[in-house]
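Model it.
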Amino acid sequence: MRGALALAKRGLGNVWPNPAVGCVIVNNGHVVGRGWTQPGGRPHAESEALKRAGSAARGATAYVTLEPCAHFGKTPPCADALLSAGIKRAVIAAIDPDPRTAGQGIQKLKEGGIDVSEGVLENDAKKINAGFFNLIKNNKPIFALKVAASSDGCIAAGPGKKTDITGSIAKNMGHMLRASHDMVLFGIGTLLVDDPQYTCRLPGMENQTPIRALLDSNLRIPLDARILQTLDKNELWIFCSPNADMKKQSELEDLGVKVITVEKLDANARPDLGWIASYLGKNGISRVLVEAGSNLNQAFMDAKMVDCIHWFASPIKIGQEQEDGAILAFSESALAKDVLNGNIQGFQMTDRRTCGEDAYMVFEKNKKG
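Modeled.
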């Protein structure tokens, strides 16, 4: 099952709105087939593993990270495929929350004479597909913050200053994070300062750039922004207010940008984050990585919409006090200091490791947080 879970992770970021599933088929102590959900969500993991196993699947055990589907979609049910292949036993990590399956796949296997074991490494499987589970349950994606900060919690040397903070190893891990999410989200302030592309530029993974989402109330994005030169890598969605320049909107749409007029604004006349979350959920987005500036980071924290924080800490010091001109990771200085102390209310540190000269920490939202 651990092997199947590792395979499932390969699908993160490129299979939405489907879950990322892994399958390993074992016969007489030998792995005869392996599979994971393919880009776009199909073929499913079980189909891929069965194809590789061929006739060796007969009498074998299938280890699957999520209950095999029981409904007809663009492909036949995976439960039927396992039965037709002659699988003798199925070991399943988690039940599929999709009401079209939700136990029906397991029931179909049992009725077909397959011995079924459930709940093996269930928590690990649910963690991998937390975005899919949340999409089914709440019709919204999960949000993760990615922050690269100095030893004193700063992300820039001053307003409008593009600041290089972390080393190459941490940067590469940041690209891996992008590749494992359906979407990367950022604000117009970051775009105007850094002119980023938000692509995945790791060798061999250039085709795993996520959808880019920009919050730009007044459509201030320059028409020569570098990100507009990378629309062949993946889409750019821009969320703007109803008062945005219609001519600019038309120009952006002519370039291939998807411009979305937000129907609800917050108290500061900016796109409402809750409305955006609902919109993304309706469109099948399950995992969003927020790579933004201090104000948007703070807004997501204030809205209690952050499920995970990926914090890259550099040993360099920029200047802790805001009056020195340095920009903290959050607009509230106390929150940045809490992260530095490893003590964020409602979160717990679940991982810490070194990335060259930098440190990488993961804070996950408490179940009761």
